From TrEMBL:
InterPro entries: PKAT, PKAT_KLD. GO terms for molecular function: integrin binding. The gene is Qnr71. Residues 71-121 form the PKAT KLD domain. GO terms for biological process: cell adhesion. Pfam families: PKAT_KLD. GO terms for cellular component: plasma membrane. This is QNR71 protein.
Length: 147
């Protein structure tokens, strides 16, 4: 296939030539191509502004629950993903993604469970159809309490 193009009235004129395998003749196609570009703001910034341990009864103490209060700037997200990793943020231990509905202001609470005590790297990613933004934090979970 060979092709040539030229600019005319801010449209692109396309001409292509293809070999026809049945008879050795050529097929020419001419036409115009026009497209618009939409610029979207996207999610510009994500911040974890608070981490709070959820008090559990002794019968529920096998998992420590932590609430992460997250804010963002830019467009409103439609999903949130949390990656829990080792303290170096290199080895992923779990990934949880959920759809969210944020209607007015980008302020949400993300609750995650931790099966055992230790220090973890938390990556929280907010996304929509056109963008993603990430915030990270180190958290120490000690028998149901997080710092």
């Amino acid at each position: 296939t060979t092709g040539a193009s030229s600019i005319s009235d801010s449209s692109i004129t396309l001409q292509s030539m293809e070999d026809n395998p049945d008879g050795g003749c050529h097929i020419y196609r001419n036409g115009y191509y026009r497209n618009g570009i939409s610029v979207v703001e996207g999610i510009l910034e994500v911040n974890i502004i608070q981490m709070t341990s959820i008090q559990m009864t002794e019968s529920q103490a096998e998992n420590a629950l932590v609430d992460f209060v997250v804010t963002c700037q830019g467009s409103l997200p439609t999903d949130v993903c949390t990656v829990v990793s080792d303290p170096t943020c290199q080895v992923s231990k779990s990934v949880v993604c959920d759809p969210i509905v944020v209607t007015d202001e980008c302020l949400l609470t993300v609750r995650r469970a931790f099966e055992e005590s230790g220090t973890y790297c938390i990556n929280i990613t907010l996304g929509d159809d056109t963008s993603q933004a990430l915030a990270s934090a180190l958290i120490s979970v000690n028998g149901g309490e997080a710092t």
